[in-house]
TrEMBL record:
It is a single-pass type IV membrane protein. InterPro entries: BET1_SNARE, T_SNARE_dom. SUPFAM superfamilies: SNARE fusion complex (SSF58038). Required for vesicular transport from the ER to the Golgi complex. Functions as a SNARE associated with ER-derived vesicles. GO terms for cellular component: endoplasmic reticulum membrane; Golgi membrane. PROSITE patterns: T_SNARE (PS50192). This is (rape) hypothetical protein. It is found in: Endoplasmic reticulum membrane; Golgi apparatus membrane. Its main location: endoplasmic reticulum.
C-alpha cells in the first residue's frame, strides 16, 4: 500500500514559499493583468478612432455620390431638352428641303453663310 505522509506532501507543495510569497505572486499576476487591460484599452481606443474615421469617410463618399447623381440627373434632363430642340430644328430643315423651292434654298444657304461670317469676325 501507498503510505503518504500528510506532512511531507504538504511541505513539498508549499516548499520555498514564504509568508508574503503568495501575495507577491498574485500581485505580480494582477500587475500583468492590469498591463494587458491597459494595452487592450489602448488598442480599443485606436480601433474606435479608426471606426470614427471610416464612418466620416463613408459619409463623405455618400454625400459626394449623391451630389454626382443629382448633377447627372440634371445633365440628363438638359440633354433631353436639347434633343427635343434639335429634333424640332431637324423637322424644320426637312420641311424646307422637301418643298424644293430654290428661292427658300438660296435664302437658307445665304443665311448660314452670313451667320458664319458674322460669328467668324466676332470671335476674331
Amino acid at each position: 500500500m501507498l503510505c503518504r505522509e500528510p506532512r511531507g506532501g504538504r511541505s513539498a507543495l508549499f516548499d520555498g514559499i514564504e509568508e508574503g510569497g503568495i501575495r507577491a505572486a498574485s500581485s505580480s499576476s494582477y500587475t500583468s493583468h492590469e498591463i494587458n487591460e491597459h494595452e487592450n484599452e489602448r488598442a480599443l481606443e485606436g480601433l474606435q478612432d479608426r471606426v470614427i474615421l471610416l464612418k466620416r469617410l463613408s459619409g463623405d463618399i455618400n454625400e459626394e455620390v449623391d451630389a454626382h447623381n443629382r448633377m447627372l440627373d440634371r445633365m440628363g434632363n438638359d440633354m433631353d431638352s436639347s434633343r427635343g430642340i434639335l429634333s424640332g430644328t431637324m423637322d424644320r430643315f426637312k420641311t424646307v428641303f422637301e418643298t424644293k423651292s430654290s428661292r427658300r434654298m438660296l435664302t437658307l444657304v445665304a443665311s448660314f453663310v452670313g451667320l458664319f461670317l458674322v460669328i467668324y469676325y466676332l470671335t476674331r
